[in-house]
UniProtKB/TrEMBL annotation:
Designated name of the protein: Small ribosomal subunit protein bS18
Pfam short name (any one): Ribosomal_S18
NCBIfam families to which the protein is assigned, alphabetical: S18 (TIGR00165)
PANTHER family in UniProt: 30S RIBOSOMAL PROTEIN S18, SMALL RIBOSOMAL SUBUNIT PROTEIN BS18M
Function summary: Binds as a heterodimer with protein bS6 to the central domain of the 16S rRNA, where it helps stabilize the platform of the 30S subunit.
Cellular component GO terms held in the UniProt record: ribosome
Quaternary structure annotation from Swiss-Prot or TrEMBL: Part of the 30S ribosomal subunit. Forms a tight heterodimer with protein bS6.
Signal peptide (residue range): none
Keywords carried by this UniProt record: Ribonucleoprotein, Ribosomal protein, RNA-binding, rRNA-binding
Family that this chain belongs to: Belongs to the bacterial ribosomal protein bS18 family.
SUPFAM superfamilies registered for this protein in UniProt: Ribosomal protein S18
Length: 76
């Protein structure tokens, strides 16, 4: 019987870039957490902690209100 494949941890983009505070005005960083359709990527994809994911989501929503980032595109 084969051994189960080892799961690799996702790379935390905030720690990789040395970000301590997520700012809604930093659209270059926030775009890395938004899909091409405008949806916020899930934690299992981004590798963020729950607190970091909540901060990123809040920053993305604020940036959308200020028209810096697009809202999700409806398919159909």
């Amino acid at each position: 019987m084969k051994p189960a494949p080892q799961k690799r941890r996702k790379r935390n983009l905030l720690r990789a870039e040395g970000v301590e505070f997520v700012d809604w005005k930093d659209t270059a960083l926030l775009r890395k957490f938004v899909s091409d359709r405008g949806k916020i990527r899930a934690r299992r994809i981004t590798g963020l902690t729950p607190r970091e994911q909540k901060d990123v989501a809040r920053a993305i929503k604020n940036a959308r209100e200020m028209a810096l980032l697009p809202y999700p595109v409806k398919k159909g």
